[in-house]
């Protein structure tokens, strides 16, 4: 929760003229704290709400910068929606924040961007936090689709889910219907979630920063992400090039980006740390917030601060 955290909201113009909706959490007018940039997932659907709720607890030590990626939320719907362009936007924001180096966090699709950023600009990174992500786009997409259409927790339109995960959605309404029918799969099974340690946070959980009553659906962004970017995304054999300290977290019951994908990433990055959250689905910061915060603090104190 961020009610007592000083938050600055800005509209930041990128080098191509597109404007992004940006928040910086924590009062630091002289920019003396190290910078954390946290990326949301689900292009065209998710917003800065997810990384804000996940990393606000660090705002006393870091300047926590979160933003709606172009093509998502309140930011401009100005393409191209490519990893190269999204990475350049991160660079623009780093420069705007006045940081030479920073900590980068990415969840789900944000993890793909974080991995590509680390391979291109690794010298800029103090560390990396990856949450429920994968290193190979084609295998990841097909695994998620297979788990969705075979799940006994869901009743889905199979043809529509194929459109969602292959990036050939008809329109924004098609996207909305495709998302709404799979929401339960992002949570851990009911019996597992009831075993999780109780949280003091009684606020509503969100899927990837997605709140059904207020979210905007941008199917063009989703189509570019999964129809164009994902088939080209495969960093498995380059993970060894990433030298920044890396924390990889994943929910044991994540059916979108299962544990073995995070294990592959942690095995590939030298000295990476893997933490599996036994009572979580696709969102450990929401499912097990106390453990998530303790895990992140432990990593930061050992490797970054």
Automatic annotation (TrEMBL):
InterPro entries: AB_hydrolase_1, AB_hydrolase_fold, AB_hydrolase_sf, Peptidase_S33. Keywords: Hydrolase. Pfam families: Abhydrolase_1 (PF00561). Residues 34-288 form the AB hydrolase-1 domain. GO terms for biological process: proteolysis. GO terms for cellular component: membrane. GO terms for molecular function: peptidase activity. SUPFAM superfamilies: alpha/beta-Hydrolases. Signal peptide: none annotated. The keyword Hydrolase applies. Belongs to the peptidase S33 family. This is AB hydrolase-1 domain-containing protein. The lineage of its organism: Eukaryota, Fungi, Dikarya, Ascomycota, Pezizomycotina.
